Amino acid sequence: MRVFRGVPPSFPVATPTVLAIGNFDGVHRGHLALLARLQEQAAALGLPATVITFEPHPREFFTPRTAPARLAPLREKLESLAAAGVAQTCVLHFSSAFAALRAEDFVAGTLVLGLKARHLIIGDDFRFGADRQGDFAFLVAAGKRFGFAVEAMPTVFLDGERISSSAVREALEQGRMERAAALLGRSYAIDGRVVPGSRLGRQLGFATANIHIRRLPLPMTGVFAVQVAGFGDRLLPGVANLGVRPTLHPADGDCSTRLGGGGERPILETHLLDFHGDLYGAHLSVRFVRKLRDEMKFPDLSALQARIAQDVAAARAFFENEHPHG
């Protein structure tokens, strides 16, 4: 997939395009339905399936303190779009200047001159331009003037619930991993490279692969049964802690001690069941399949060690009894 950082009118794409526009946070089943329609129309017209998305998310720009947790960083979103068959993605920087851009200028400059749109697909709630002036009716009228067709993708429902990034976030926050997976079409996952930790887990008998998390706030925290990809075609079972809160109540008042990490920087710590080897530098994808409990604080290392042993036993029982094909 080709990725463009912005589409200035002075550097238009080489061929006309079939376009979809959206934030695509999480690339859930509603997004996948839209992208399937995008591919279908692109194939019919013999043109590249192209997506416009935004960085940062508009809500992060307008209300950074109250913006919802991202389901995936930009890199993972681009990987998901590529996996869905998108040929080109244009990442537009959402800034003060972009927020002030009039709807008609966005259409004329980006859609028509920059991307040579021939067919445009949007979600049924899509709005754009300064003061959200642009909507479906606006685009239809503009399409007649500039020569592109417009269609709105109807909302996709699951068990009567609208599939949306907000619904996925709510399921994750509530610890309903199965529901989140149903909305996404796959288990929720966090990818990253394994980095050195404090080796506390190894001292306690439960070595962890530690992945620093760049996204804040987190969509969820806690201890989970997970499946870990990154070992060829195998998925390895494990137990993972995701969060930022301290694990221990140290006597000296230093509340930065955690299993494998420290401080307020979020970290994903994963103990692989029955695995022995060096994972430093490996790129892993940790898939969350069952929430075991919330994060907890412990009075000492012995209490922490005992609880980790319980978590490992709970994860092992889950994979052996409820998820036997891990």
Description:
The protein is of the alpha/beta class and 326 residues long. It folds into two domains: 2-158, HUPs (Rossmann fold), CATH 3.40.50.620; 188-322, Riboflavin kinase-like (Elongation Factor Tu (Ef-tu), domain 3), CATH 2.40.30. 31% of the residues lie in helices and 26% in strands. It is built from ten helices and 14 strands. It has helices at residues 29-45, 58-62, 74-83, 96-99, 103-114, 136-146, 165-173, 177-184, 200-203, 301-322; strands spanning 2-5, 17-21, 49-55, 88-93, 117-123, 149-153, 157-158, 161-162, 188-193, 209-212, 222-231, 234-243, 267-272, 283-293. β7 (157-158) and β8 form a beta hairpin. Mean pLDDT is 88; it is low at 251-263.
The SS-based structural class is alpha/beta
* SSE arrangement, N to C: EEHEHHEHHEHEEEHHEHEEEEEH
Number of helices: 10
Report the count of strand segments.
14
What is the residue-averaged pLDDT?
88
Instruction: Tell me the span between the first and last alpha carbons.
Output: 31 Å
**CATH top level class name of the largest domain:** Alpha Beta
Shape: elongated
Query: What would you report as the Rg, rounded to the nearest angstrom?
Result: 22 Å
* Helical percentage: 25-40%
Overview features:
326 residues, alpha/beta, Rossmann fold, Elongation Factor Tu (Ef-tu), domain 3, 2 domains, six-stranded parallel beta sheet, six-stranded antiparallel beta sheet, 31% helix
